[in-house]
Design a protein that fits this description.
The chain is mainly α and 67 residues long. The chain is built from one helix and no strands.
Length: 67
């Protein structure tokens, strides 16, 4: 069996594999970050809409706490 020796072709192969893995990791991180941001944005939208709808209801602001 022939021993594998590191040469220019092997260096190029390793470089291309590392470049591909790094690129995929960066794309994955951007996709995850975007998904998290969209999720929190949507949660914030739900809260704002809930509060806005609650303000429109007849019950909102009708009760006062006596201290």
């Amino acid at each position: 069996m022939q021993d594998i020796t590191q040469n220019n072709m092997m260096d190029h192969l390793i470089f291309e594999i590392e470049k591909t893995v790094t690129s995929v990791k960066e794309r994955l991180a951007r996709a995850v970050n975007q998904t998290i941001m969209e999720t929190y944005w949507k949660i914030g939208q739900y809260i704002v809409e809930f509060e806005r709808d609650k303000c429109k209801s007849d019950l909102w602001g009708k009760t006062v706490i006596n201290t």
